[in-house]
Amino acid sequence: MANIIEVKNLTKKYGNFKAVDNISFEVKKGEIFGILGPNGAGKTTTLEMLESLRTPTSGIVKVLGFDVSTNAHEIKERIGVQLQATAFFDFLSCEETLDLFGSFYDEAQKSSKLLEEVSLMPKAKTFVNDLSGGQKQRLSIAMALVNSPELIFLDEPTTGLDPQARRNLWDLIDAIRKGGKTIILTTHYMEEAEYLCDRVAIMDEAKIKDIDSPRGLIRKLKAENKVEFSADKKIDLKKLEKETGALTADYVEGDVYSLRTKDSHKTINQLLEYAKKNDIKLDNLHISQATLEDVFLSYTGKSLREK
Ligand code: ADP
Q1: Which ligand 1 atom lies nearest to the CA of residue 45?
Q2: The whole model's pTM is what?
Q3: How far is the CA of 62 from the centre of ligand 1 (A)?
Q4: Max alpha carbon distance in the chain (Å)?
Q5: Looking at residues 19-46, what average pLDDT do you find?
Q6: Is residue 59 scored above 90 in pLDDT?
Q7: CA-CA-CA-CA dihedral for 215, 5, 100, 124, to nearest 10
Q8: Which domains does the chain have, with CATH numbers?
Q9: Phi, psi for 151 (deg, rounded to 5)
Q10: What is the average per-residue pLDDT within 260-267?
Q11: Potential cystine with 232: which of 62, 264, 265, 281 (Cβ 3.0-4.6 Å)?
């Protein structure tokens, strides 16, 4: 797959402070690439250098084959950038906002088509001021699509939204990608990165710690999984541990058992075999997989949730 973005040894300094420290990565055509990290990690600074809005201190950034240091204009014409809702005019309607924004480009999509695409058609005549948080985010995504860009930048697209509005926005972002666009987004929600992104860069304190698919990152971690179940008979914990190859076996409460394992596949198979052999009826079998949160914790020693 072709690279839409190429970043090599990119650094941004403010005085002596490094906001972005020698990062390198590529974004491939058609993927959703996420930069996951806590506040202050350097995500926005990175994005703004790719959008040719900030000048790198050193390093190379190529976007759609153009160098940001020499071809900023060509890049800006071809990318879509989601503006923060605070940049809107409160007393323009959605339609007027898109028409105004479209007038900045030689060729712009019709506001009706854009509103349709982000499911805001019923709000065409509504003032921006009267939109909900989720609707404002939809409008800002429509604005990013106004010049039919191949590549779209979304900076924390769902921050501040309630879970339902967030899920709706994920569906929209996914639909835009399915329409053939490449998307690069920043987030500090691991669920968002896990749900949406083909590949994720884990960023902390100005550096990229690793890049891979969410599954790949989790697999690499070789994290422990938890297997829980209930049983109709008492099982000796020592025996259970031995028979299932689990690291530990415990009672959670009542008849619920919990096994810690690095190989949930093997543990479950052996558990089922053991249960059959001993005529034990299992119920509520449940595996909890490691998440990107665990990956983040292992790379940075801190939790995203605390941020
Ligand atoms: P993130 O988007 O991950 O929250 P940012 O890229 O906004 O992080 O910021 C990274 C770091 O750079 C932060 O410590 C921030 O305070 C600092 N920073 C960002 N912009 C400036 C600026 N214009 N001048 C000085 N420091 C800045």
Answers
A1: 6
A2: 0.81
A3: 22
A4: 75
A5: 95
A6: yes
A7: -20
A8: 3-218 (3.40.50.300), 222-289 (3.30.70)
A9: -130, 130
A10: 88
A11: 281
Q: 3-state class of 293 per DSSP?
A: helix
Q: Which amino acid is at 177?
A: R
* Dist. CA 19 → ligand 1 center (Å): 6
What the block records as the tokens of 23 is 């990062």
Of 44, 153, 184, the one to substitute when testing ligand 1's pocket (max ligand atoms within 8 A of C-beta) is 44
Read off the amino acid at residue 267.
T
pLDDT tens, residue by residue, 161-220:
888 889 999 999 999 999 999 999 999 888 899 999 999 999 999 999 999 999 898 887
Q: Which residues pair with 35 in a beta bridge?
A: 186, 201
Residue appearing with tokens 């590949």: 199
- CB distance 40 to ligand 1 below 6 Å: yes
Nearest-Å Rg of the Cα atoms of the chain is 24
The angle, 0 to 180 degrees and rounded to 10, between the axes of the packed helices 237-244 and 264-277 is 120
Copy the structure tokens of residue 111: 């506001």
User: For the sheet containing 32-36, what is the strand order?
Assistant: 79-81, 151-155, 182-187, 32-36, 199-204, 207-212
To test ligand 1's pocket by mutation, which of 10, 13, 17, 186 has the most ligand atoms within 8 angstroms of CB? 17
- Whether 185 and 154 have beta carbons less than 8 Å apart is answered as yes
CA–CA distance, 21 with 59 (Å, rounded to integer): 10
Calculate how far, in angstroms, residue 41's C-alpha sits from the geometric centre of ligand 1: 8
